Amino acid sequence: VAEMTKLLHGASICVDATHPYATEATRTICEACETTGVEYHRLLRTESELPKNSIVFETAAEAAEYLESTAGNILLTTGAKELPAFKNLDIKRIFPRVLPTLDGIRACEALDIPHRNIIAMQGPFSLDLNRVILEQFNIQWLVTKDGGAVGGFMEKAKACAYCGARLIVLRRPRENGETVESILERCRKLL
To answer: Is 50 inside any structural domain?
Structure first.
């Protein structure tokens, strides 16, 4: 909060355009705006239309519990912070796609995920790259969040359809916010 408060010094408006699942970051930004008196606006990403055969869960823990009774390799694209929820699964089945950072690799190592299973890359990823990853690692299950178009959600969903993998989606946290158009209008008024 202190760092965000310092960053907001002298600002008139703050647009929180963080990932829809970055609830901790949003709380921090809100608190810093309240402390500084800076006007806060939450930019909402448009939710994706989920394919009909998607399996939807509220939490990563629920998805992991479901996957315990399945067979086949699992591509986790939910981020390093969600990895501990999958600790009870057979680690040989887990292929986490994480950011290529020390924190991302360490999160995988904390679960004893073999290095050969770690896919450390920065997205978003094209349909073709998603498809190739699914094929290369013989993935039957892809677990993701609905990051919208910016997060490459449809490319993952289409790759699953193409390869016959099942799509598991972690439901977005409920939030209030505004469209790009309404936030841009507010910014124009400030100028």
So the answer is: no
pLDDT band, residue 138 (cuts 50/70/90): very high
Q: What is the DSSP string of 92-127?
A: GGEEEEE-SSHHHHHHHHHTT--GGG-EE--S---H
102: domain range? 55-170
Residue type at position 75: L
Q: Round to whole Å and give the CA distance between 35 and 32.
A: 5
The pTM is what?
0.82
pLDDT tens per residue, range 76-94: 999 999 999 999 999 999 9
Q: Where does the chain show beta strands of DSSP type E?
A: 13-16, 39-42, 55-57, 73-76, 94-98, 119-120, 139-145, 166-170
